[in-house]
Design the sequence.
């Protein structure tokens, strides 16, 4: 097949039947029967078309259109290319403080996630026994608690006169100040949600490191630190990148946790966008805010796709 | 003397204390993690579950002052809750079914057919994860706004359907790729038709993964709140969206607790089969890993 695998498919409803017409040369000329040609070249594309179309229409198209629309501005009856919407965003004190606040939460949450999850993953990879089993169950448990229920539960747990304050007062600790409606509560909620995914990805990466490899290194006199730096770290750099990028995107695009647990001001971008779109009914401004989050996250999004792609291609080659 | 011949009465305590100390020495980190995680992860859920069955709960009591069910009938006589619960279930089932219809043939094609751009097109579905989610929803909402899809059921179905794509394509693709081809070829050799081979040999082998994908999709969709909130309001209200107002108004603590408890039940179902999902490695495949 010298030409494109398929160029255009017209789908027409004609007498209640669907007719496929293609602009491809007649396949018989290539020495293959039309039926085989259909099954070999065209059928897979027809099978993957519906989800691909849906994704194009609902992800690529809206994103692209938002980017274009925010750059073309109507001024005095004239349409033209302009950065004025972005200039307005960065001149607005509230917008800028919300963006900075989002960054701060992202960094703080990411740091906490890795501080908590890395030791846990190492532990779960190398420890055996009943305690490790119980720890694993607890670590995976948040996977089965939807975000909205988590928020409600954390309010009851962390809030004033909640379960935590009760427990502390029984132990004899008084003066508890609730993090609820403060930035700390957002971090707690987001870390809580991210633990299972992060640990799953990291332990999956650590699982590829065989015990014998580590024993070999130990036999030739490598210490714990050397083993960690020279053997473990290079092998799990990919899982680390995946955990980093997906958590980054998840936190940057979060809505439920910051909306329900966080302060009224400053807001994270998700909450800010929803307010601009839903309450103030200013879709144009909401769109500008959305595109700004796209641009900030684009590098991280690419990092994610690239890392997963490399991993997948390597897997397929080894099979 | 006593160490050689410990008195019977303190035997159990001595032994358990001894095993605790040795456990502590052997696995101090694990024990610490267990205690902290137990408090932080189970503590919040403890509060919700007990609040759902509390008549009164006065501070500082660790358990409700009085247990009872009177708030249950009150909760389920609220018109908004009565309307939202069946609607949410039907909506999640619809989205899951549509997702299966459009994604499963695609995943079969990705796994078993050779065509140009296969790898790239399969990887392109990672895009559903590569955007900051809420920004993307706003972008979609702006388009839906002009198409008059805001506040409509089709609008909510579409936005929830996008969320299911990666999971419903990647997990089944991995499963179809994992099928041992030699069995199929053997069946073809002895004269079975292709359809029969697919139904009797291929399908049973991929069924655990397919059901895992369907179950995960259903549960994820059932709990999906952000897309439904921005696209559905004000006319389409799902159960998770209703939770926002129940939490914010906070008239009666028990309403939120009871709804949370009921909403959580499908997730418990998932918890029961989680072991199988974990063993198959499907959970991470759903994240695009």
Sequence:
């Amino acid at each position: 097949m010298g030409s494109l695998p398929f160029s255009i498919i017209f789908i027409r409803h004609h007498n209640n039947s669907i007719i496929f017409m293609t602009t491809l040369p007649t396949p018989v000329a290539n020495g293959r029967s039309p039926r085989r040609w259909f099954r070999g070249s065209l059928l897979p594309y027809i099978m993957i078309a519906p989800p691909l179309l849906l994704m194009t229409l609902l992800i690529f198209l809206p994103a692209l259109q938002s980017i274009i629309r925010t750059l073309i501005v109507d001024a005095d009856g004239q349409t033209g290319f302009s950065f004025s919407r972005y200039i307005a965003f960065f001149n607005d004190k509230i917008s800028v403080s919300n963006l900075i606040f989002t960054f701060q939460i992202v960094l703080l949450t990411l740091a906490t996630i890795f501080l908590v999850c890395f030791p846990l993953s190492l532990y779960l990879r190398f420890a055996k026994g009943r305690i490790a089993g119980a720890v694993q169950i607890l670590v995976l448990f948040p996977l089965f608690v939807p975000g909205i229920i988590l928020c409600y539960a954390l309010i009851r747990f962390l809030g004033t006169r909640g379960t935590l304050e009760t427990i502390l007062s029984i132990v004899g600790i008084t003066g508890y100040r609730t993090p609820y409606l403060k930035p700390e509560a957002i971090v707690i909620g987001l870390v809580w949600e991210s633990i299972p995914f992060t640990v799953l990805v990291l332990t999956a990466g650590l699982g590829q490191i065989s015990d014998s490899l580590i024993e070999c290194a130990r036999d030739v006199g490598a210490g714990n630190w050397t083993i960690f730096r020279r053997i473990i770290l290079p092998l799990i750099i990919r899982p680390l990148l995946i955990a980093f990028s997906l958590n980054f995107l998840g936190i940057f695009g979060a809505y439920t946790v910051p909306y329900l647990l966080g302060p009224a001001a400053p807001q994270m971008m998700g909450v800010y966008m929803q307010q601009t779109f839903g309450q103030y009914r200013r879709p144009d401004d909401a769109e500008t805010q959305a595109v700004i989050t796209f641009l900030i996250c684009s590098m991280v999004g690419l990092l994610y796709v690239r890392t997963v792609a490399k991993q997948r291609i390597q897997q397929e080659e080894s099979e | 003397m006593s160490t050689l011949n410990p008195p019977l009465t303190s035997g159990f305590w001595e032994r358990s204390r001894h095993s605790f100390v040795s456990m502590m020495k052997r696995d101090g980190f694990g024990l610490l993690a267990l205690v902290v995680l137990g408090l932080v992860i189970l503590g919040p859920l403890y509060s919700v579950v007990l609040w759902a069955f509390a008549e009164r709960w006065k501070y500082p009591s660790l358990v409700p002052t009085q247990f009872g069910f009177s708030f249950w009938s009150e909760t389920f006589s609220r018109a908004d809750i009565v309307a939202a619960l069946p609607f949410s279930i039907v909506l999640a089932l619809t989205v899951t079914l549509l997702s299966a219809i459009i994604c499963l043939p695609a995943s079969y094609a990705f796994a078993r057919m050779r065509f140009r751009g296969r790898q790239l097109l399969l990887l392109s579905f990672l895009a559903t994860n590569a955007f900051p989610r809420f920004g993307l929803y706003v972008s979609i909402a702006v388009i839906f706004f002009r198409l008059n899809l805001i506040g409509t059921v089709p609008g909510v179905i579409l936005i929830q359907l996008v969320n299911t794509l990666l999971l419903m394509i990647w997990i089944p693709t991995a499963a179809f790729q994992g099928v041992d081809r030699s069995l199929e070829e053997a069946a073809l050799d002895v004269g079975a038709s292709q359809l029969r081979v697919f139904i009797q040999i291929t399908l049973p082998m991929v069924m655990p993964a397919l059901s895992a994908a369907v179950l995960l999709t259903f549960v994820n969709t059932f709990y999906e709140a952000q897309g439904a909130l921005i696209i559905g309001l004000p006319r389409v209200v799902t159960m998770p969206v209703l939770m926002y107002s129940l939490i914010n108004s906070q008239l009666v603590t028990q309403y939120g607790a009871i709804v949370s408890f009921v909403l959580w039940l499908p997730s418990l179902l998932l918890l029961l089969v989680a072991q199988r999902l974990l063993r198959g490695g499907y959970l991470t495949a759903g994240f695009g890993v």
In short: The domain at 92-318 of chain A is CATH 1.10.3720.10 (MetI-like fold).
